[in-house]
Amino acid sequence: MLDITAQPLTREVFSEFGDVVDTLAGTSFAINAGRAMRHHDLARVETLGEGARAQLSIFVSKPVELPFELEFLERHPLGSQAFVPMDGSRFLVVVAPVGEAIDPGSVRAFVTNGRQGVNYRASVWHAPLAVLERSGELLVVDRGGEGANCDVHPLRLRVGLAAGC
Ligand SMILES: NC(=O)N[C@@H](O)C(=O)O
Ligand code: NI
Description:
Layout: E1 2-8, H1 11-14, E2 18-21, E3 27-31, E4 36-40, E5 53-61, E6 68-75, E7 81-85, E8 91-96, E9 108-111, E10 117-120, E11 125-126, E12 130-131, E13 136-144, E14 151-161
Parallel strand pairs: 1-9, 1-14
Antiparallel strand pairs: 2-10, 3-4, 5-13, 6-14, 7-10, 7-13, 8-9, 8-11, 8-12
The structure holds (2S)-(carbamoylamino)(hydroxy)ethanoic acid (UGC) and nickel (II) ion.
(2S)-(carbamoylamino)(hydroxy)ethanoic acid binds next to loops.
């Protein structure tokens, strides 16, 4: 069992795995006669393979207990996958770099602040959605279409939170 500690999520530490989706990112500009700010092009949605398309879903998820124990990480080789909270819920982000095998030393864990979403790049290893503290409602943008799009890699992990998280 590999014990890892989740650190606060930032754009910089997550950059090799994908994008952080929040209003602090990217370029923003006024639209609609100044009534709104567009926080533009925050993440790249990847949809690969036969009949690929982007799809929007909503996950309503029960929370996980801490320390969070899991037996595998998964990846989606045919597309990215984004999770954006609709209700301020926080969640754990456990990732490992693209590759056929996972080097346990490369696994990283982060915790979001309730205003952050993430977009996992295609083939980035990650834990399935793990909401903290209370039930969470998240918008999910990922790839629809033909073909198998979920590989599983056995790995026993126990994830705790860094002090103050
Ligand atoms: N199974 C499913 O749709 N979701 C997972 O891919 C996940 O990362 O939570
Ligand atoms: Ni996934």
